[in-house]
Amino acid sequence: MSLIKSISGIRGTIGGKAGEGLTPIDVVKFTAAYGAWVLEKTGNSKIVIGRDARLSGEMVSKLVSATLQGLGIHVIDLGLSTTPTVELAVPAEKAGGGIILTASHNPIQWNALKLLNAKGEFISDAEGKDILEKAETEDFSFAEVKKLGAYTAIDDYLDRHIQHVLDLELVDVEAIKARGFKVVVDAVNSTGGIVVPKLLKALGVEVVEEMYCTPDGHFPHNPEPLPENLRDISQKLEKGNFDLGIVVDPDVDRLALINEDGSPFGEEYTLVAVADYVLSHTKGNTVSNLSSTRALRDVTERQGGTYTAAAVGEVNVVSQMKAVDAVIGGEGNGGIIYPTSHYGRDALVGIGLFLTHLAKFGKSISRLRATYPNYYISKNKIELTPEINVDKILSEIREKYKKQPINDIDGVKIEFEKEWVHLRKSNTEPIIRIYAESDSESKAEHLAKKIMQDIKEVVSASLI
């Protein structure tokens, strides 16, 4: 069993002993700490909650609702929802915060509490530490019987979210309708199965073929939208007469696309394509995290904007986007953040913008993909023994490559001509993750292996 407490929330496997898995005791304790923090910081006694369709969702949701009510907080429950829908609902309901009950792309046995501030954005590092401390010290008290919180269920926020997408200026429903798209959807039997087909029909998509769109929480495959997990939809596209495939993760904040021939568009390129479209209409800057493809920088500079890299993590990307007034940004895992909509990864907004882009492009999705520079990312890791000083290793690698442009806001990223390597240590185990990108798969793997050999030499020297 696993329980991971971090600044962004609490995540764990269902069952086991308290403190070892995500048990009801852990859910109540952490929810109480967050609710007490919201009351202290905002004085606002209203919190929005929503969940994905995983099997433990209803149980966890009832625990969260009852705990918040016990603190005297009015709960607005969206029920089966998406992460970006809850993010939109928090400011719309003038709430003090929000909790999304989802373990995102993690397997079926996991669940989590993701925490939002009053803007509907993920809480900061400092705020997360405050809440963790409250939970650890149990620094909260519950309301008297006559001051218990109310409970309200609202079941139409997915429809409101769809309307929000339709109302975006850069989403052109008529252009999409005119193309008569035929689309296959894989929503991994979570809440995307409710909202994505509905959105596509509202956008004027002619044919919507649903795969795994029953929101019962029985994931038919690993829910992370990576090519190796998407063989079924790829095979359907190979055999059928469809224009593209759309895949979302269980909480609908990541968007992956499949070409008409069943080949992956590339999750890194979801953001690249959407950014290209947005920048062609709204000149400005872009942001992605340090481990995302260089293609976004190329597209941004081609459109006259400036690209900036942020530390890994949505909250860091959002912070950097605000700092440089970015018009579009996100992460290379298919996460689109469009500030005109809201500061959160949103697959539904991404679908509206991407389909408009593809409709106006007028050719196939594979032809669109071919217009972007080709880069390949090799993802690796080195496992070390606990006594090895990982920070010292990263410092020595930085020194070895000091003549190259280096970004050390999050690990060490070394830039070369049209390629890069990013080294990050794990916060929970003695591991260094090594991501390398180049213009061919073999070059990316060669670069990664070269840096991995450098690390091994540093480790060997430190043990002499």
Keywords:
single chain, 464 residues, alpha/beta, seven-stranded mixed β-sheet, five-stranded antiparallel β-sheet, 15 helices, 20 strands, 39% helix, 22% strand, globular
Largest beta-sheet characterization: 7 strands, mixed
Helix content: 25-40%
Strand element count: 20
User: How widely separated are the two ends?
Assistant: 38 Å
User: By helix and strand content, what is the structural category?
Assistant: alpha/beta
Strand order of the largest sheet: 1-2-6-5-3-4-7
Q: What are the low-pLDDT stretches, counting only 5+ consecutive residues below 50?
A: none
Number of helices: 15
Strand content: 15-25%
- What number is the mean pLDDT? 95
Q: Tell me the overall shape.
A: globular
Q: What is the rounded Rg?
A: 22 Å
Q: Oligomeric state of the chains?
A: single chain
Write up this protein:
With 464 residues, the protein is an alpha/beta fold. Helix content is 39%, strand content 22%. It is built from 15 helices and 20 strands. A hairpin with a 6-residue loop joins β10 and β11. The longest helix is centred in the C-terminal third of the chain and has 23 residues, at 441-463. It is globular. The protein has helices at residues 24-42, 57-70, 83-92, 125-137, 157-166, 173-179, 192-202, 231-239, 267-281, 295-302, 314-324, 347-361, 365-370, 390-400, 441-463; strands at 3-6, 9-13, 46-51, 74-80, 97-101, 110-116, 151-153, 182-186, 207-211, 244-248, 255-258, 285-289, 307-310, 326-331, 335-337, 376-383, 406-407, 412-416, 419-425, 431-438.
